C-alpha cells in the first residue's frame, strides 16, 4: 500500500494561489517565454550540478553554456557536467529531470532546487529511502515556489512595460491594417498571443517587427541589382 503523503498546508496554499495567478498570464508572450527559457536553462544547470558537487560558479556555468569555453582551474569533469547536463551523469540529475517533466505536464514550471539546500535535500532523500517522504515533499514544494516566483516576476515585468490590446485596437492606434497584423500573428512574425478566438499584441511588439522588417530590407540586396552591377564592371587590361 502506497504511503499517504501530504504537503504542509500553507505551502500548498501558496503554490495553488501562485499557479492560478500564472495561469492568468497564459499563453505567455514569445519574448517572456524566451527570457524564461534562457534564465531557467542556466539556473537549472548551475544549481543541479552544484548539488552534485560541481564547483563552477553561476558566471562560469553561463560562459560554458553560451560560449563553450573551458574554465581554468576546474577539472574537465565539471565542464562536461555543464555541457552534457541532461545525459548520463548520475541518477540525481536524471531524477530531477523526470520530476520536472511531470511538473510541466501538470502545468507547473520546473522545480528550481537551490545549491544552498544541498544538505537538506540529501537528508530528505535519505528520509525518503526509509519511507518518510514529508521532508522531500516539502523541499520540492519550495523548489516549485522558487520557479513560480521567477515566472511571475517575468510576467509582471512584461505586463508593466507592455499593454496587450486586440489587433483591431492596435491597428486603429497605429494607422495599420488589422487583417495584415492578423496575418503576421498567424505566421509567427509578430510577437502576439491568442486568447480564445482573438489575437492580442502590444504597440512595442509591432514597433519591434517594423524595425526588424526595415533592417531586413536594408540588408537584402536584390539579385537583379547584384547581377546588373557585376556586368557593368570594366575589364582590367
Automatic annotation (TrEMBL):
The active site is at 85. Residues 211-237 are annotated as: Disordered. It comes from the Bacteria. Residues 20-145 form the Fido domain. This is Fido domain-containing protein. It comes from Reticulibacter mediterranei.
Amino acid at each position: 500500500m502506497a504511503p499517504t503523503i501530504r504537503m504542509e498546508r500553507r505551502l500548498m496554499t501558496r503554490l495553488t494561489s501562485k499557479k492560478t495567478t500564472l495561469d492568468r498570464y497564459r499563453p505567455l508572450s514569445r519574448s517572456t517565454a524566451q527570457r524564461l527559457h534562457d534564465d531557467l536553462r542556466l539556473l537549472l544547470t548551475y544549481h543541479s550540478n552544484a548539488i552534485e558537487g560541481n564547483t563552477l560558479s553561476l558566471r562560469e556555468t553561463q560562459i560554458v553554456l553560451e560560449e563553450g569555453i573551458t574554465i581554468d582551474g576546474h577539472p574537465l569533469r565539471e565542464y562536461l557536467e555543464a555541457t552534457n547536463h541532461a545525459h548520463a551523469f548520475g541518477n540525481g540529475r536524471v531524477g530531477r529531470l523526470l520530476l520536472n517533466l511531470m511538473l510541466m505536464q501538470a502545468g507547473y514550471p520546473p522545480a528550481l532546487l537551490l545549491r544552498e539546500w544541498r544538505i537538506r535535500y540529501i537528508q530528505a532523500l535519505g528520509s525518503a529511502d526509509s519511507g518518510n517522504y514529508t521532508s522531500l515533499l516539502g523541499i520540492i514544494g519550495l523548489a516549485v515556489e522558487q520557479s513560480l516566483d521567477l515566472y511571475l516576476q517575468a510576467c509582471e515585468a512584461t505586463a508593466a512595460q507592455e499593454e496587450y490590446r486586440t489587433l483591431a485596437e492596435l491597428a486603429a492606434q497605429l494607422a495599420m491594417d488589422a487583417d495584415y497584423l492578423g496575418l503576421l500573428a498567424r505566421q509567427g512574425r509578430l510577437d502576439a498571443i491568442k486568447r480564445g478566438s482573438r489575437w492580442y499584441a502590444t504597440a512595442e511588439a509591432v514597433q519591434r517587427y517594423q524595425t526588424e522588417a526595415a533592417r531586413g530590407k536594408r540588408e537584402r540586396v536584390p539579385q537583379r541589382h547584384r547581377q546588373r552591377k557585376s556586368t557593368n564592371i570594366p575589364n582590367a587590361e
